[in-house]
Design a protein that fits this description.
single chain; 505 residues; alpha+beta; Immunoglobulin-like; Glutaredoxin; 3 domains; 13 helices; 14 strands
C-alpha cells in the first residue's frame, strides 16, 4: 500500500502535465529549460539545487512568480520580470528529508495579469531510503546542474468543546509536513483551545481548487505566494511557517468565548452501544465449546492428580490471570495494527465489508453447529479446535498439574493453553477486535478490549469457585453438555449483532 501511495504524487502531476500546463493557450507564452527537473536518484536527506531558465516568447514583458507547494521546495528569486523575447533564471532547491521512493513535486508558476496563465513546473526522481544505522546526511546544499536528461475520523483529546471551527486547507498530495500538521498540530490546538477543528482538504494541483484559492486571495488583496494555504473565515494564511505561527491567534479571535455550561460531548451513539455486543461476545467466548472442554479436562486432571480444593482455587486464579494477560497482550497488538490499517480510507472500507461477510458466515456456521448438536453429532462441529491442538493442550495439562511449583506452573499452563486455543477463540476474538478498531475514541476502544477479556475469564473463575465449594467436574460437564447448543445459538446471535452494528456504525 505504501508503495502505491508513493506514486500518487507522480500520477497527479502527470495528470496536470497531460492538460498542457507548460504550453498554455493564452498569452504570454513561456517555455522552461529544462522542461522538467529530473534529479535522478539521490539519498534521503540530500538537499539539491538546479537552475531553470524561463523564456518569454510574447511581445510584452511578463512577471513570472514561482510558488512552492511544500516546505521542501525553495526558489530564489521567487519572482522576476522577463522582457519581451527575453529570458530569466530561477534557482530551485529541494530537500528530500521527508521523502522516499519515486517522488514528484511541483512549483506553481503564476504570471501577470492574475488568472491569465496557470502553469506548473515539475521535478521528479527517486529518493533512496537510508539505513537506520547510516550516518545522518550532510545538511549542506548539493549543487545539481540539470540537463533534462537525468532522471489522514480523527480523535481529539479535550476537556471541553467551545465551538467548531471550519477551515479550508490547500496543499499538495505527498507533502509530509502538511500531513504532519494535520495529524499533530491540529489535534494539539483542539486540546489547547477547547474547540473542534473541521478541516476540508483541498488539492491545490486541481485547477478548479487553485482558481478557488486564487479568487479568494485576490478578494483579500493578496496573491498566491506560498503553499500550503489555509482559509479561516475571511483570513488567509500562506506557507507552513505562517500557518503554524498565526493559526492559534486566528482561531482564538474567531471562536466565541466558552459558555459556563460547556461540557464534554457525549460519545457517539455507536460507541456507547458497543459495550453490549462486546460483553456478550466475551462471556460467550468464555464458554465456547473449544475453550470450555479444555477447562473440563483441566478439572478432571486436577482431580486425578489428587489436588485439594484450596490448591484447585489457587491454580484456577493463576491460570485465569495468565489467560487474561495473554489474550489482552495479543489483543492490544492486533488492535493497534487494525487501528492503523483503518486509518487508511480504502483499507477501512475493505476491513468493514470483510468483517461483515466473516461475521455473517460465522453466524451461519454457528447455527449449523447447533443443528449438529441437536442431532447428536457434536464432534462434527465446524467451529471447534483441531484435534492436533487438542492433543497438545491435553499433554501440557497432564504435565503441569503434577508439578510442585503450583503458582509458576499454573501461569505457564494458562499461557500455553491460551496460545494453543487461539486457533479456536480467535473465531470470536478477531472479529471483535476488528469491530473495536472502528470505535472512534481509542481510549473507549481499549477499555472495551479490557472488558471483553474480563468477561472471557469470568466463566473460568466461576467454575473454579464452584469447584472450591464442592461442585464436581462431572456435574459441570453434564451442565455444559446440556446447554452447548444454546451457547452456539448465542454465538450466532453475537456474530449477527456485531455484523449489524458494523453496518449501522
Amino acid at each position: 500500500m505504501q508503495r502505491h501511495r508513493a506514486w500518487l504524487p507522480v500520477i497527479l502531476v502527470a495528470l496536470l502535465l497531460s492538460t498542457g500546463p507548460l504550453h498554455a493557450a493564452a498569452a504570454p507564452s513561456l517555455t522552461f529549460s529544462p522542461e522538467v527537473w529530473k534529479f535522478g536518484m539521490i539519498a534521503q536527506g540530500a538537499r539539491i539545487e538546479s537552475t531553470v531558465v524561463v523564456a518569454n516568447h510574447s511581445r510584452t514583458p511578463v512577471t513570472v512568480t514561482f510558488v512552492s507547494t511544500c516546505s521542501c521546495l525553495t526558489v530564489e528569486p521567487n519572482s522576476r520580470i522577463i522582457a519581451a523575447g527575453g529570458e530569466a533564471s530561477f534557482r530551485l532547491g529541494y530537500d528530500s528529508s521527508d521523502d522516499t521512493g519515486n517522488t514528484a513535486k511541483a512549483f506553481i508558476v503564476r504570471t501577470d495579469p492574475p488568472g491569465t496563465q496557470r502553469l506548473s513546473y515539475v521535478l521528479r526522481g527517486t529518493v533512496r531510503a537510508e539505513r537506520r544505522d547510516a550516518p545522518a546526511p550532510a545538511s549542506s546544499w548539493i549543487r545539481q546542474e540539470s540537463t533534462g536528461n537525468a532522471e489522514v475520523p480523527r480523535e481529539t483529546a479535550r476537556n471541553t468543546v467551545r465551538a467548531v471551527a471550519a477551515l479550508a486547507y490547500y496543499y499538495t498530495p505527498g507533502c509530509r509536513s502538511c500531513e504532519e500538521f494535520l495529524s499533530t498540530e491540529v489535534p494539539r490546538l483542539e486540546k489547547k483551545l477547547g474547540i473542534r477543528i473541521d478541516i476540508q482538504r483541498k488539492d491545490i494541483l486541481d485547477p478548479a481548487l487553485y482558481e478557488e484559492l486564487s479568487s479568494f486571495a485576490i478578494s483579500q488583496g493578496q496573491s498566491i505566494r506560498a503553499i500550503p494555504a489555509l482559509r479561516a473565515g475571511m483570513t488567509l494564511l500562506q506557507g507552513d511557517q505562517e500557518i503554524r505561527a498565526k493559526l492559534a491567534e486566528v482561531l482564538t479571535s474567531a471562536v466565541p468565548p466558552a459558555p459556563a455550561s460547556a461540557a464534554v460531548p457525549p460519545a457517539p451513539l455507536a460507541d456507547r452501544l458497543a459495550v453490549f455486543p462486546v460483553i456478550a461476545a466475551g462471556l460467550l467466548d468464555g464458554i465456547n465449546p473449544c475453550a470450555f472442554t479444555t477447562l473440563i479436562f483441566l478439572l478432571a486432571s486436577l482431580a486425578l492428580a489428587g489436588r485439594g480444593r484450596r490448591e484447585v482455587l489457587v491454580i484456577g486464579v493463576m491460570f485465569s490471570l495468565a489467560v487474561f494477560l495473554t489474550y489482552l497482550g495479543i489483543g492490544l497488538g492486533l488492535f493497534a495494527a487494525l487501528r492503523a490499517a483503518s486509518a487508511v480510507a480504502i483499507v477501512s472500507i475493505l476491513l468493514r465489508w470483510a468483517l461483515v461477510i466473516v461475521l455473517f458466515l460465522f453466524a451461519g456456521l454457528s447455527v449449523y453447529d447447533y443443528a449438529l448438536i441437536r442431532v447428536g453429532r457434536p464432534t462434527k462441529m465446524v467451529l471447534q479446535l483441531p484435534s492436533a491442538l487438542k492433543r497438545q493442550i491435553h499433554a501440557s495439562i497432564r504435565t503441569r498439574v503434577r508439578t510442585a511449583a503450583l503458582v509458576g506452573s499454573s501461569l505457564v499452563l494458562g499461557f500455553l493453553v491460551s496460545v494453543f486455543e487461539f486457533a479456536c477463540t480467535a473465531q470470536v476474538y478477531l472479529p471483535t477486535l476488528t469491530y473495536l478498531a472502528r470505535v472512534r475514541r481509542q481510549l473507549d476502544a481499549v477499555g472495551l478490549l479490557v472488558l471483553y477479556n474480563l468477561c472471557f475469564i469470568a466463566p473460568l473463575l466461576l467454575v473454579f469457585a464452584g469447584t472450591y465449594y464442592g461442585v464436581s467436574s462431572a456435574r459441570i460437564t453434564t451442565f455444559f453438555r446440556a446447554h452447548m447448543g444454546k451457547v452456539k445459538l448465542g454465538l450466532a446471535a453475537v456474530f449477527a449483532g456485531l455484523a449489524v452494528f458494523t453496518l449501522v456504525g
